[in-house]
Amino acid sequence: MHIVRSPKDFYAGLIYLGFGLAGLWFGAAYPMGTAGRMGSGYFPKVLSGLLVLLGLLAIIRALRVEGSPVGAIRWKPLVLILAGCSLFGVLLQPLGMPIALFILILCCAMASREFRWDPRALAGALGMVAICALVFIKGLSVQMPLVGDWLITLLGKV
Amino acid sequence: MEMLDNLWLGLSVAITPINLGWCLVGVFLGTAIGVLPGLGPSATIAMLLPATFGLEPVSALIMMAGIFYGAQYGGSTTAILINLPGEATSVVTALDGYQMARKGAAGRALAAAAISSFFAGTVCTVLIALFAPPLTDLAFKFGPAEYFSLMVLGLAASVVLASGSIIHALAMIVLGLLLGLVGTDVNSGAQRYAFGLPELADGFNFVIVAMGMFGIGEIIANLEDESRRDLGVKSVKGLMPTREDWRRMLAPTLRGTTLGAMLGILPGGGAALASFGAYALEKRVSKHAGELGTGAIEGIAAPEAANNAGAQMSFIPMLTLGFPANPVMALMIGAMIMQGIQPGPGVMAEQPRLFWGLIASMWVGNVILLVLNLPLIGLWVRMIMVPYHFLFPMIIVFCAIGVFSLSNNAFDLQIMMGFGLLGHILKKLDCEPAPLLLGFILGPLMEEFLRRSLLISQGDPTVFVTRPLSAVLLALAVAVLAMVLLPAFSRTRDVAFKEA
Questions:
Q1: How far is CA B281 from CA B259, B263, B276, B496, in A?
Q2: Low-confidence ranges of chain B (pLDDT < 70)
Q3: Mutate: best of B48, B174, B455, partner A, most A CBs <10 A
Q4: Among B52, B127, B204, B281, which has the highest number of CB atoms less than 10 A from its own CB?
Q5: Domain that holds residue B394
Q6: Structure confidence at residue B500 (pLDDT)
Q7: Domain count across chain B
Q8: Which of A37, A43, A91 has the most B C-beta neighbours within 10 Å, making it the best mutation to test the interface with B?
Q9: Measured between alpha carbons, how far apart are the two ends of chain B, in Å?
Q10: Which of A78, A115, A142 sits opposite B401 (nearest CB)?
Q11: Is residue B303 part of a domain?
């Protein structure tokens, strides 16, 4: 018999508690003011306090009520997709949009079970990059560099 | 007839070739993205929002409305054909729609959805034109206390819709409110929870939050279980409903429209509530109640009419009060603000062409849906059948470029990633993202109106119950919450969600 009977409630409660405590901690310095003249800290502290309370309630509930376990997490898609989005943001300026986008597409595609190293898939990804470059940079003039800063420096040195 | 004059003015704006064209483009794109499995209207609109930035305000909003209808209908198509509802509003449609599709009547099911939606849309366009002016007058009587109470009501209503324990729905709302406060405090100019990052000075952009939680979060969830896609049909034939179908659709469509129009005004996601309610109502009153769940056309007509009526009526609080009743309306407000229009009671008097043009375009959008989407059904089916592992990298690419183009800032991608992760974790724990999103939108507004109300009353909290309008709104909120807490209601609610 485990102490935690409802893991989902328990972890959700921990998350609420975490956000609530963080809200109180980082908001500690914001001035409270009074109800009639609210400072910038009044509403955040009330909300954080409520969140702590709800977190505690959820944890108590988790100890008393039977609930279902948390489903297994498949790490591969989770990590690859999040990493792909993050990398795209990091690499956009230094490497330029086409290369960053290609890496993003590759990361995403690898997240699928159906992924195979296939020349046609690579060609598809390259085609996608070309279309996006044409549509978004040339057509809709989104402010993305075609050639990144690093590449310009590299090419400049050669 | 003032209303006819207004509608005429609106129509003259909406059917200029340019605006008609953008409406068409919006409906087409909205359906094309909306049919993709796992992408509901909110995610679709968030993804397509950047595409409207270059247009002039009227065209941009008309295109947004077109995207909205297209996305809604696309969601129903996916629900019927592969039993994968993108959002709560089309959950009920999937029940009977998918069964009909499996019996080989997919065409008639899709037609029933389109026709009942069109009927509801037409009725609600007239209702909005009729009620918008008096409600705008009422809106001018709204002080900060009334706005605050209205938001409380909206949040209370969103609790009803969230499945699972009330603690979690409440916590999602509070967490959303708190996340909404990140950035500069409008009153004092102080930075809150920005950790010295200039990128956070203006807070999180709502579009990014929506794309992260709905778009990226959904994709990761779909990838965890890639096998669950099951197309009930190989091709769609026989779109025309039979005479029997027409007869059986009539009453449920009328009932659904009425229910949707009434619940839709309620802030906090009336559309989903309406579609659940309409289905439950059919189970009570329909002559064919026994067939519901096995592929009865009533089970499509009623919730689809209710859902469309509700979705359209949620434009009323948006247009008259500038109040976002659901995430979709928040995106519309976001689009208005980016076009330099401050949503609220002033819009009708200051920008009559925009106001009535938008209302008229609702009807035009519904017409386009009927004449464009049904004939193009073959194309939508083919889009649904594209294997997911080809589709989702493209969706992510559009999300990534879209997020970047919002403010040409690469840091926004990290924010999107963060919300994607948060959304995924919360989903794993059975916490619904919709109340969080509503809280997120309302956070700063709520603080501002609370602050102003208490400033006027010099710190006296009774102001919310001594002003009659505000007291009524708060009483409604209490009633809604009490309803959820009643054991009898929570049992039916559990049943409703289980069936869905």
A1: 9, 14, 9, 12
A2: 1, 38, 86-88, 161-164, 226-238, 267-270, 487-500
A3: B174
A4: B52
A5: 2-145+205-412
A6: 45
A7: 1
A8: A43
A9: 44
A10: A142
A11: yes
